[in-house]
Structures are given as C-alpha cells and as structure tokens.
Amino acid sequence: MHGLYEIIEDQGDGISGITICHKEKGVFPLFASLLDRDFSSVWSAGKSHSLSLQVLLYNLPFVHRAYQLTYSTRKTKVEEMFLLLQVGSSPEYIKGSDGKAYLRILLDPNHFPAYVTSIPNNIMDTISDRFALIGGRGFALRSVEGAKWNSNGSVSSDLRDMMNRQRKDYCYIRSSSRIWYLRRLTSTTQECLQLNTMTINMAIMHRLSEIVRYKPEQLQRLLQAEENWLLHEYMSLALDQFLDELAAEITHKDIMCTGVKE
Questions:
Q1: Cα(200)–Cα(35) distance, rounded to whole angstroms?
Q2: Would you give the end-to-end CA distance of the chain in angstroms?
C-alpha cells in the first residue's frame, strides 16, 4: 500500500548498507510523482534501483553539515551538495529588460574564501546550465530562460511551466530566518539526486520507522556506529522539516519557525 520496501538480504551494520526500493504503485510513488513529474525516470521502481540511506541523507540540505562532519577526515573532505544563498534572501523572479520574468539567485559570498570575488569555475561547472552569472562575475545568478510576465500580477502558464522545471534547483531548511540553498548537479562525494527533498525525506522516515518497529537490534548497531550523530540529527529535524515543506507546498507561503516568548 505504501509502495516502499527493503532488500531482505541487507545486513545494515551501517547506513551505507541499508537500502530502500519502491514499487510502481502505492502512496509513496504517487506522492513523489505529484512533486516531480520525472520521478519514475530519476528513481526507477524495483530492487535493482535501490538507494542507500547514505546516498539519500547526502541529498538532504537540513543535515548536510552533519553529513560533512561525520564523513570528512583530515585527508578527505566531503564535497558540499548545497550552496548557501545570502542570508535572508530567497530565489525570486525579476523582470528583465526584454519584459520577461527571470529567476535570480544570490549566493552568499561568505560561503567562499575571502580572496574569491566570483563563483569559481569548478563550482559553476557543477551548477545547472539553466543559470548563468549576471555580468559574468560576482555571486548573482540569473536563469538563462525567461518566461512571459503578466502585467496584472497573475502567473502566466509560461512562467508556471518554467517554475516547474527550475524548482528542484533550489531548496530551503526550516528556520526562524530564510535559509535557502542552490543544489549542485554533480559531486565527487556521492550520487546527486534530482528529487524533491520531501520525496527523499519520506523514504528515509519510512525506512527508519520499520527498523525501529521490527529490527531493534539493527537500530542498536546503527546508534553505536560512527553515523550515530548523523542519525540523531536527522531524527531530531526530519518531521518538522517535512511538515513545514508540506505546509509551504499547500499554502504557497514561507511557514518558518514562530517566535515564542516565555
């Protein structure tokens, strides 16, 4: 019914050995297909297309720092999957000189070394070719493609189609302030999945819930392994992040954290 299942032969002594598969029908593939039109081609159904927990966790922005700290060593540093936007800013559509709508993204200069004055070429090579540097330098990106801008403020069908093509290029994490990231397409560390983060999060939550309910001895091994801090970070944040994204998807609003005074 849910459409997710495990490979029985998995030993699961670490998160790299725990895999997740999905069926062609069920709640999960239906939900994922609503978020990503190309879901079935990005993550095909069946045992031969399973993904490990390690790969899935690498593709979640709200645990990417914990992932880096878990697997980086003095000799080998885990490559970042997500590039931070300027704090407080978010991807926005601007009107170009040709009257069309373009998506603008401002990366945070503090994310790079102080001597860097523009996004390095090796980073640009990993960013979707749907974007180009504004003016050829600096940290501001603009979509190459433009769409019809309706003067009355409504969203044109042309713009809506462009948004659907671009939406997987950026993502955010739940916070009391706006924290957005640009997703890179390639990495030397792990496989980069062009999937909605809710799709990835839902698959991991279901798999871990099965382990907690039916394989407590496996859970104990995982919590004693080197990835225990990464798993703890994920379990602490995952549900709130999922609900926040789901609410934002339904309402088209930034939900964020509410301020509470004691």
A1: 11
A2: 44
On the question of pLDDT at 262 being above 50, the answer is: no
Pair 189, 78: CB distance under 8 Å = yes
Number of neighbouring beta carbons within 10 Å of residue 120: 10
pLDDT tens track for 215-242: 888 888 888 888 898 999 999 999 999 9
- The answer to whether 133 touches 124, Cβ cutoff 8 Å, is yes
Helix axes 228-251, 197-214, angle to 10 degrees: 130
Read off the tokens for 147: 């769409």
Q: Locate tokens 């698959």: which residue?
A: 203
Which pTM value belongs to this model?
0.91
Residue with tokens 């964020």: 256
Q: How far apart are CA 166 and CA 253, in angstroms?
A: 18
What's the CA gap between 173 and 244, in Å, rounded?
Answer: 9
Residue type at 53 in one-letter notation: L
DSSP class of residue 107? B
